[in-house]
Amino acid sequence: MKIVSVINLKGGCAKTTTAVSMAELLAEGDKKRKRPGSRVLLFDNDKQGNASRMFEVYNRDQEAEACRIMRTGHMGENSIRRVSGIAEDEKLDVIPCNYFMELAELAVKADQDHAQHDRYKTALGEVAGEYDYCIIDNPPDLGMNVINAMVATHEIIIPVCLDAYSLDGLEELVEQINQVKALNRKARIAGVLITDYEKSDTSEAAESWLRAKSGCPVFSQKIRHSTKAKDATFYHQTPTRYSVRSGAAQDYKAFVAEYVQKFGNLAAGERG
Ligand SMILES: Nc1ncnc2c1ncn2[C@@H]1O[C@H](COP(=O)(O)OP(=O)(O)OP(=O)(O)O)[C@@H](O)[C@H]1O
Ligand SMILES: [Mg+2]
After folding, report:
1. Which residues sit with their C-beta closer than 6 Å to ligand 1?
2. How many CA atoms within 13 Å lie on the side-chain side of 131?
3. Which of 73, 254, 270, 272 lies 20 to 30 Å from 116 when distance is taken between CA atoms?
4. Does residue 89 fall inside a structural domain?
5. What is the count of structural domains for the chain?
6. Nearest ligand atom owner, CA of 251
């Protein structure tokens, strides 16, 4: 099972949209490109629970499964929620999260007797044979749960929005990436993904800087701004499910094709 973390310490740059789209599209496969579906585990690591809401597994009243995994360092029974009807053969499962993550993080910090940083790594190791990919949606901070995700991860995808402030923020972003990399030197940055893209002088300048000077690999495919992607959140749906014809849905499909072409596809019959 390959573990992929979607991360950016800046808020609102389409981390969740990217993580859920990627999970869904990897699970579905791509008939046109003859790519079979993969077995995908989507790990919601954000207490906001936005990814959990999209797959209707959010529960605000009880400690969510991700929080229990953080506290115990083990998968435990019933940690994984099956999501039916999303992908053919139901190959997409979700580990939900909610605000109990704050309590779980405090409990972990207080627990000096057990290792604190490799709890996800241990827990995910317990289900490694059951999935091809685990996609982790992270919050915009570097809390104990994000550190755990980074320690477990094999690859990092960094969504960025090239908005008016982004030129100022890009160097900071590179520093943050290095900070994150320091937590797990084996993790490779699969690439920066330009999201919510609208053509303007600022966005073009930011993109040139990113591709030529940031020192980070950048995916060729960009994700266009699309009002349908925002509308989809009102219905707790991914852009692909809400409107498969929208620019964002089409771009995410092409992005996943680029990703598997660069990093290989793990799917039925090709498991390593
Ligand atoms: N391509 C797009 N076009 C239009 N709106 C988009 C696009 N991608 C994401 N959005 C919208 O931008 C908002 C932020 O997206 P999202 O929740 O994925 O960001 P995030 O990085 O996960 O945020 P947070 O840091 O709060 O976790 C959402 O309302 C989402 O619908
Ligand atoms: Mg999010």
Report:
1. 11-17, 46, 50, 139-140, 195-196, 223, 225-226, 229-230, 233, 248
2. 27
3. 272
4. yes
5. 1
6. 1
Which ligand neighbours the alpha carbon of 240 most closely?
A: 1
Distance CA 110, CA 98 (A): 20
258: nearest Cα among 51, 93, 25:
25
Question: Would strands 155-161 and 133-137 be described as parallel, antiparallel, or unpaired?
Answer: unpaired
Q: What is the CATH number of the domain that holds 52?
A: 3.40.50.300
Angstrom distance (rounded) from CA 35 to CA 37? 7
Residue 189 lies inside a defined structural domain of this protein: yes
Q: Which domain holds residue 180?
A: 2-262
Collect residues with CB below 5 Å from ion ligand 2. Answer: 15-16, 50
Domain membership of residue 227 (yes or no) is yes
CA nearest ligand 1 atom 31, residue: 230
**Does 270 fall in a domain?**
no
pLDDT by residue for the chain (272 residues), tens only, comes to: 999 999 988 889 999 999 999 999 999 999 899 999 999 999 999 999 999 999 999 999 999 999 999 999 999 888 888 776 665 555 899 999 999 999 999 999 999 888 899 999 999 999 999 999 999 999 998 899 999 999 999 999 999 999 767 666 677 777 777 777 788 888 888 999 999 999 998 899 889 989 998 888 999 999 999 998 888 888 888 888 888 889 999 999 999 999 999 998 777 544 44
